[in-house]
């Protein structure tokens, strides 16, 4: 979704993602939420440079709490920021994490805004199981806000992942708000109902124009129709019958 920066856009896409998984009969789904904006707000406030931010991102992605604490200590960060970075990997769990974070993280407007967005998503899906992890940050460098993923019982990894990536379009000439998600289609293919394949209907290229309406009708019914440009077969028996009926009514 392009051009809409409000959290309602993210909620709409999460709803689409969850409904798609329901159609695919994925069973019980866990929605996992994070927000890169919290880490970036802390990083800016603590005046970390790009290299320091990248180092902490990698450590938090590995859930290496001890190394995070050792690293901020080695940098001799101000106590408030050192405490905040050390706290992030511990802020995970159910919906209650948000109230816990509000009481323990520094009072920054960007942090509060990110927590508000996470709360809005939680409120939009009151019946869904939700897991929140404020150190789930992804190290791809293009996400800018909300992060989410969907997990199903039969799969060891996320079936779908998404998030906000405002401004990414600037690399292609037009920067604007953007949010979206992707599916692992391999996870879906095995759960789709089996469809009996019918033999393809072959139409000689010379007959294709005359048979165009009949070809379209068959394809709309799910029949595979192949235009043969080299073998030289005549119109299949079924198509020939349709053409004959059309000719009888003066429509050929």
TrEMBL record:
SUPFAM superfamilies in alphabetical order: Class II aaRS and biotin synthetases
A Pfam family reported for this protein in Swiss-Prot or TrEMBL: tRNA-synt_His
Gene expressing this chain: hisZ_1
GO biological process: histidyl-tRNA aminoacylation
Domain named Class II Histidinyl-tRNA synthetase (HisRS)-like catalytic core: residues: 1-186
Lineage of origin: Bacteria, Pseudomonadati, Pseudomonadota, Betaproteobacteria, Neisseriales
Recorded GO MF terms: glycosyltransferase activity; histidine-tRNA ligase activity
Matching InterPro entries: aa-tRNA-synth_II/BPL/LPL, HisRS-like_core, HisRS/HisZ
UniProt-recorded name of the protein: ATP phosphoribosyltransferase
Keyword vocabulary terms for this entry: Glycosyltransferase, Transferase
């Amino acid at each position: 979704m392009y051009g809409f920066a409000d959290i309602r856009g993210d909620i709409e896409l999460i709803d689409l993602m969850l409904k798609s998984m329901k159609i695919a009969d994925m069973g019980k789904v866990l929605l996992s939420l994070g927000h890169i904006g919290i880490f970036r707000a802390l990083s800016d406030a603590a005046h970390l440079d790009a290299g320091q931010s990248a180092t902490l991102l990698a450590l938090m992605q590995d859930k290496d709490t001890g190394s995070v604490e050792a690293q901020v200590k080695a940098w001799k960060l101000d106590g408030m920021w050192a405490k905040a970075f050390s706290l992030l990997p511990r802020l995970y769990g159910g919906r209650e994490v948000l109230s816990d974070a509000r009481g323990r993280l520094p009072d920054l407007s960007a942090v509060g805004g990110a927590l508000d967005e996470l709360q809005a998503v939680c409120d939009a899906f009151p019946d869904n199981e939700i897991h929140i992890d404020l150190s789930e940050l992804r190290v791809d460098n293009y996400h800018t806000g909300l992060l989410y993923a969907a997990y199903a019982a039969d799969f060891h990894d996320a079936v779908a992942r998404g998030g906000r990536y405002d401004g990414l379009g600037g690399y292609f000439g037009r920067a604007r708000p953007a949010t979206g998600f992707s599916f692992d289609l391999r996870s879906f293919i095995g759960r789709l109902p089996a469809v009996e394949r019918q033999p393809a209907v072959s139409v000689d290229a010379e007959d294709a124009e005359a048979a165009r309406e009949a070809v379209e009708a068959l394809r709309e019914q799910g029949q595979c129709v192949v235009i043969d440009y080299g073998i030289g077969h005549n119109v299949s028996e079924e198509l020939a019958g349709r053409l004959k009926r059309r000719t009888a009514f003066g429509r050929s």
